[in-house]
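Ticket opened by: R.M.
Priority: normal
Category: complex prediction / small molecule

The reporter submitted a protein together with arginine and asked that the result be attached to this ticket for the collaborator who will pick it up next week. Submitted input follows.
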Amino acid sequence: MSQRKVHNLKAYRPPHFLVEQVTLTFELDPSATRVEALTHFKRHPDAPTDAPLQLHGEELQPELLEIVGQQERPHYHIENDRLTLTPPAESFTLRCVTRIAPDKNSALDGLYISGGMFCTQCEAEGFRKITYYPDRPDVMAKFRVTLIAEAQQYPILLSNGDKVATADLGDGRHSATYEDPYPKPSYLFALVAGDLALLEDHYTTAEGRKVTLQLYSEHHSIDQCGHAMQALKKAMQWEESRYGLSYDLNTYMIVAVGNFNMGAMENKGLNIFNTKYVLAAPHVATDAEYEAVEGVIAHEYFHNWTGNRITCRDWFQLSLKEGLTVYRDQSFSADIVSGSVQRIQDVRLLRNHQFPEDAGPTAHPVQPESYIEINNFYTSTIYNKGAEVIRMLETLLGWPIFRQGMDLYVARHDGQAATVEQFICCMEDASGRDLGQFRLWYVQAGTPELTFNSLYYPESQRYVLNVTQVCPPTPGQLSKAPMHIPIRMALLDPDGQPQSLKLVDGEQVLGAETVLELTTGEATYTFEGVSKAPTPSLMRGFSAPVKWDAALDREALAFLWANDNDPFNRWESGQILAVETILDMVGLTQQNGELPDLPESFAHAFETIIKDGKSEPALLALSLSLPTTGYIMDRMDKADPHLVYRVRQHVRQAVASRFRPLFLSLYGRHYSDEPYHYSPANAGARALKNLALDYLLENPEPTVLALAHKQFHQADNITDWLGAYGPLLRCGSPSSSELTHILYTRCKDSANALDKWFSTQVTMVAGPEALSLAKALTQHPDFSWSTPNKVRAVVGSFSGANPTAFHAIDGSGYGFLQEVIAQLDEKNPQLAARLCTYFTRWRRMVPELSQPMQNALQRLLDTPNLSNDTYEIVSKSLA
Ligand code: ARG
Ligand code: ZN
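Result attached by the on-call engineer:
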């Protein structure tokens, strides 16, 4: 087996040389771009005087390497992607010329071409594919960049900072020079050159700076950029009012590119975005995507402070910027859309992605201690669990103190490459609290599990709540210490109202809701003056990223589902009730070989919710959605996706037929003939209406089919087209192929609309047919292996959203994914490695599936010349 280099946090050493200034000149040419770098180095004050200069460089050959002002050529050697040079002095300027081929760069890392335009992605380590440089985030330099290109083909030339010069070079080429006054690490460098259309607007900051906002995209999609522009202005305003932080350059540029590995990138002053998170129009983006655009625009904008002005010392600190920035974009979305809906969506994402990761072979702490390929660590743990950890700090300290901690962080570390430890120190200094135990959240992997037990004593009016915590072992971490866990809770009286809380021996009345701080393996809290037997409402608002068992019976869960005044917990109680009901039914099916009837208790509780007239529609839609097959499977020791899917469908059919009139009336009430307009309220109504239709089509009789067809044919927006088309496809409606054709003609002019045309098909067609369909779609003229969005739409949706097809008992679904990964790995390792995550749960599957899954992984491991990216995920999965 191959030996791969492992990077360890413990091995961190400061750089021997810092860079004061770098001047880059690009002569852009698709197959032979010339890059000249003039880098002014200065020895780090603490570095030994004989320390060599070490530069990163991958897939590069220097055409010229010289010390400016020196006759003789410097001594250097190149080995394993490193150039080592004997420095001539304490401080000197190196001139380095390299030539690179952006048109051959299919990994989309470094300088590449997307849709005829040049663009870059340098995080985490793409800059080293452009020139020799200390490509590490703790080396921060001022950049001056000149771009030279054919004027006709590339009229727009962009880089970070302010444009300081332009020139017509007389030979058909032109140039533009940019200067970024803020020192930055190389991963924040960006350039773009192409024939792009521009949408421009302005924003005046609280400090009075007039900022020009520029959104660039291909000409045919520039009219789809208005929503993103509005989102940007909202984000700029929100950050000023919530954090007192303003934008710091005269121009803020966003460019939408079609071929992009991730969501977006926060390059200083020049964000580069996957078109999926910029473009929005009724026939192109769903309501959920309109929301995602706002969230990602805000996320990248917020990085300007948490990421750019204060960056990371090394990649083990990645969550310092990502967790914090996700927390901030979640708060933004909560404010502009809906706090409760946002919270539920955040938790769903965490549970569907991060919990499985934390319970699997690639589990790692929020601050990892080692990696082979850093690109594999842009994970749900770093991002989403990282955000939860920040949120717990806000919960423990309270917003005003948390905000003071943030102010201190900015004051102390502006312009620096910082660490998680320094961030926590700011929170400690602002609050005067000891966060020693809290730090465990950064270094211990795994999802802690809480078990609650309670007893009510009517005579003494006391309520005793006992809780224990354990954290399961994860790779390399067999035993864990107890964590510092905030438990937000209330005790509800029979009307669902929180009773005021007072702890025995506690001095003060705590109010109706309190945050208990669990710091030990076990703790008991005794409340006094509890006049009526309460129903506990625990972990309100999902106060910690943990699993818990509240030990509530079905009756209590149904009560909370209908009555808890914490919206998250209302939703959560319904989910627990559904999971428990479905797991019971799974057990009965295994015993008796046939599907049992839907328990009355669940049907009654469901009926109460569907009749609920108070909740906002978006919340009601979430409340009436059953937990995903994946989430239910995670609750089983050995998961059988086919059985879970069957039982879940059975429950859906049962409630659909039993509550048909109620679903019909929900549909009617939220149906609208108005032209499409995105707003949170309209989106909520559409979500509820489409949820009702989705249930109704579980029993596709003529009236319901007619409703769905009417919606499909009359709607003016893709949310409603898909709301009808998806379930029609699932129920095998005879009109399917005609609808597929019609939808294609509506989508064909937009790559992003087409992505949904692809993904809906492979998701909704069940059984063996789905595999042949997925394979056929990869041959479709609109499909391309070079566009990650397309690969995700077909292969990702097939593997992640069609459990019965992917987990086909003959292993054919696994075989398909394995072959795709093996082929893609040469072309785009980051994308290939991402796709491997669908295999990582293999040990938790029933034996007849875990065996073929393991075999597929083994075949991958045996693939010659596997990238570090794929190798790391595959080898860890099999270990
Ligand atoms: N910093 C970017 C963001 O969170 C993600 C870039 C990740 N790219 C990568 N190739 N690993 O918005
Ligand atoms: Zn980010």
